[in-house]
Amino acid sequence: MYSQHSAFCLETQHFPDSPNQPKFPSTVLRPGQVYHTSTVHKFAAR
């Protein structure tokens, strides 16, 4: 249970070790490329 003024943070990120794993999505953003991401967090009460 969280107490008053408690908080938590949800941060998106790429796969760990992406730059060293050819099968993982690239994390490199070249000049002129546009970075776009969308994150959806859904919470449900039990």
Mean pLDDT metric:
87
Based on CA inertia axes, which overall geometry fits? Answer: elongated
**Residues in helix, %:** under 10%
| Tally of separate helices | 0
Q: Determine Rg (CA atoms, Å).
A: 17 Å
Major β-sheet, in short? none
What's the total count of β strands? 0
| Termini gap | 14 Å
The low-pLDDT segments are none
Helical/strand content category: little secondary structure
What multimeric state do the chains show?
A: single chain
| Percentage of residues in DSSP E strands | under 5%
Question: Can you tell me about this structure?
Answer:
The protein is largely without helices or strands and 46 residues long. It has no helices and no strands. The protein is elongated. The model has no long low-confidence stretch (mean pLDDT 87).
Give the helices and strands, then pairings.
Elements: no helix or strand
Short description:
By secondary structure, the protein is mostly loops. It has no helices and no strands.
